[in-house]
Amino acid sequence: MLSGCGGPEEIPEEPGEVASPLVNAGYWANVTKAFPRTPTGHVAAIGRHNCYVTTETTSSANLTKTNATVQSAINADADLLEFDVKEEGGRVYVHHEDDGSTNGPLLANVLDYASLKSDDAVLYIEIKETSTSQSIARQLLDLLRARRTWYARAGRPVVFRGFYARRANLAAVQALLPEYPDLSPYIQFHVFLRDGDAADMLAFHGLLRDAKTRGWHGVEFPYDSENLLSKVAYAKSLGLGVSLWTIPTSMGEVYLSNMREEVDAFVCEYDVTKARGVISDANQLLYMSVWNQPAGATSVRYYRTGATAYTVPVNVAGAPTTRTDAEGEDRHGTSLVFSAPSAQALPFYDADTAAGQGYLVSAYVNFDDLLTTCPGGASSCTMALLNKAEAGGFALELHRSSSGARVLRFGVHVAGGYQYATLPLDGLNGSNGYLITGCYDGSGAVRLWVDNSAAGTTPTASFTGGVQNTDVPVMGGADPQASGAPRMFLSAKVQMLQVLRWTGTGH
Description:
alpha/beta, disordered N terminus, TIM Barrel, eight-stranded parallel beta barrel, seven-stranded antiparallel β-sheet, 507 residues, Jelly Rolls, phosphoric diester hydrolase activity, 2 domains, PLC-like_Pdiesterase_TIM-brl, elongated
């Protein structure tokens, strides 16, 4: 059942994968390999983390095992293959540590593996060298030039990457590119940035500007970074590509799903085949991201199950207002501002899950009220962030009990009632932007994450059975009612809302 939230705006791109010979859209438009697409048509690549082996005592033994690892990644259809490199004794080895060891396979030998040469996956080469010299930079470029038939060519760029503390090695490669005009168009540079690389968000945004000024192409963040969407949005506003690392084996499907529409690549320990399936899974029920939408408009667009855009009102009575934040904030660009005293809400549509399945719900939010007191002196109160709850469905909300206990909670209606995963609100503040995710897959616990961390959360016991559907719309900023006005209004600034059908099968 669809609500009257505005007519559809047709967008031609459809879910699935980009078919050769078409190029990928967006950041990977220069790559001919078919990368997976999300339900809205966004392209997000999946990289195989540490695509090599160094556990054996000799370089030759590790080469044999590395070739097998590369073959496994190719068989899994990995889009990006990560190799860490360093220099020892004038030779470039594949190895995770710049520790003087020479048991890793030589990069030249890895690049000469026939299956790697004939594949079209992008090489993701991280320079681990701790010293800075043009020696490793020149060797890397010479190795590629000698193999121009297969690497650093049209349709198959090579991405050099490095941590911020080792950025001088990226600059060294970049400085030599004028001597390699045949390679230069097909070389890209990414810098890794972690929370501790800057004192605050203003300084962090400054690092992103610096990457752009240097002529680098992308930035990479840990998947569990603080203020993640602020970093992603600011980088994207500068025209930089964004990757997240390293998606773990456990719960990787959650961390892929909640950012698949926003970033350009994920580097994964999580199974590559499954990860590509998570990106292209047609399980979307609602996706809204407003950071790059006009702040003065009277509506914002969102997506339901595919690539068709719908609209919902803003900046009118009963709807949230908008604001714009520039550099240095926990959000960048446009946010929706919900005010509980003004009774503002976003009604979407009746997005039921499938029989036997659950929901994954996520939001990016800065809280203006963490329920230190209840409105009007009430003994208990709730503020709904994203709800579809009326004797069924789900609820992502803040709750203060009559005892004064305050929690962030995600609940679904299963086994005859609402079952909630919780997190005490004491650890949250009004200055950070939080990526909040809750899920239940139809068989297991109800779980909750903040910034892709479950630390401090309390999941439920295990349940079996699909979520009870209910005939009310998904609503942002309030709790919908089958009859009568919404309730439990929110005071917060919101940039992203997402609802997916969720099942453990296939992930």
